[in-house]
Write a structure and sequence with these properties.
The chain contains 9 helices and 16 strands. By secondary structure, the chain is an alpha+beta fold. The chain folds into 2 domains: about 230 residues, Nucleotidyltransferase, domain 5; about 100 residues, Substrate Binding Domain Of DNAk, Chain A, domain 1. It has a 6-stranded mixed sheet. A 4-stranded antiparallel sheet has the order 10-9-12-13, with no helix packed on it. It has a 4-stranded antiparallel sheet with strand order 11-14-15-16, with no helix packed on it. A hairpin with a 5-residue loop joins β14 and β15. α2 crosses α3.
Length: about 350
């Protein structure tokens, strides 16, 4: 029915109770901190008592989460085993799988205790592995990841043109927000303003998406029906130029619906067609961004480079559906396509899914 980013869905779950509360102020600025198993999302929103949820900015890292914390511990254990037993277990898929499960359990234990142990019988070639790990060591191993989280918080506030003192509520979503160090750093950043843990961190995204679906279908109670979501595009959208570069047409955090266009010149002599490849992401080169889709515009009159111009238009509707068109200025020849979501899954995503299946 509609595309929605995870932190925005979580904000709807949080905001629904606030909207229906008669004591709710006219509006509240809410910061959603969503740290899960594989992704990290942040969102800055304003929730009004009349049911309007306005997204000011979103940010995060699609490859940062609990799995990175697990991997840091696994790598540390591999080095410790190698140091004590002179054996490298990194080539054994079975040993690494068992070690990852043990490290993930240790990570969870360290959220409620200062020290725990990792014990695995016959980890490799009949050799047992046993090691104590402290919360301090876990925090030290993952310090760069925690620092990166706060950097994304700062960037999101900057994109939303809001000072941290103007944020009323900080909402925690995702299982990895139970890590004490994460809560400590977030508390320090917001000058020890209380962190909101009133919504279920594991279910908030799904709950908020269901609320929006009920709103769009006209079902639900008055608070649900009165809900108005003013969203932004979470990632920059553009096309490939020069064979490698990303030319942004719609920058991230642009309020939707929106329509933007740009003019591009032919880069080579005697071109008769041009490929329009659409990407999303923040990197300067398209190889580091996410490929969405492509089409080819034919019928370009041959001539020297730079003579013919193509107008490329990106339009996103209120449901997050992207319409891309390219029109040859000299002849009016035009092609277009509609993109309703990412058409590909990255190699890293596939490998992560396969590892989960292997562990199961």
């Amino acid at each position: 029915m509609r595309l929605i980013s995870e932190p925005t869905a979580a904000a709807i779950a949080y905001g629904l109770d606030k909207i229906s509360d008669p004591n709710h102020p006219q509006q509240k600025n809410v910061f959603v901190f969503d740290l899960g198993g594989g992704t990290f999302d942040v969102s800055l929103l304003t929730i009004s008592r009349d049911g309007t949820i306005s997204v000011k900015a979103v940010g995060g890292d699609t490859h940062l989460g609990g799995e990175d914390f697990d991997k840091a511990m696994v790598d540390y254990c591999v080095q410790e085993f190698k140091k004590k037993q002179k054996k490298d277990i990194s080539k054994s898929a079975r040993a690494m799988g068992r070690l990852k499960v043990a490290c993930e359990k240790a990570k969870r234990d360290l959220s409620s205790t200062a020290e725990t142990s990792i014990d695995i019988d016959c980890l490799c070639d009949g050799v047992d592995f046993s090691m104590k790990v402290t919360r301090a060591k876990f925090e030290d191993l993952n310090a760069p990841f925690f620092t990166k989280c706060i950097e994304h918080v700062e960037n999101c506030l900057r994109d939303g043109n809001m000072h941290k003192n103007n944020v009323d509520d900080i909402v925690l979503v995702g299982g990895s927000t139970r890590i004490p160090k994460v809560q400590q750093m977030l508390g320090e950043f917001f000058d020890w303003k209380p962190l909101c843990k009133s919504i279920n961190a594991d279910e908030a995204v799904a709950y908020g998406a269901a609320v929006l679906a009920a709103n769009l279908s006209g079902n639900g109670n008055k608070a649900v029906k009165d809900l108005i979501l003013l969203d932004v595009t979470p990632l920059s959208l553009g096309i490939r130029t020069g064979g490698v570069y990303m030319s942004v047409i719609i920058p991230r955090n642009t309020p939707i619906p929106t329509m933007k266009e740009d003019i591009f010149e032919t880069m080579y002599d005697n071109l008769v067609s041009a490929s329009v490849r659409v990407y999303q992401g923040e990197c300067g080169e398209t190889k580091d961004n996410i490929f969405l889709d492509e089409f080819t515009l034919h019928g370009i009159p041959p001539g020297p480079k730079g003579k013919e111009k193509t107008k490329v238009c990106f339009s996103i509707d209120a449901n997050g559906i992207l319409d891309v068109s390219a029109e040859l200025v000299s002849t009016g020849n035009k092609r277009s396509m509609v993109i309703a979501g990412s058409q590909n899954v990255s190699k890293d995503d596939i490998e992560k899914m396969l590892k989960k299946v292997e562990l199961c």
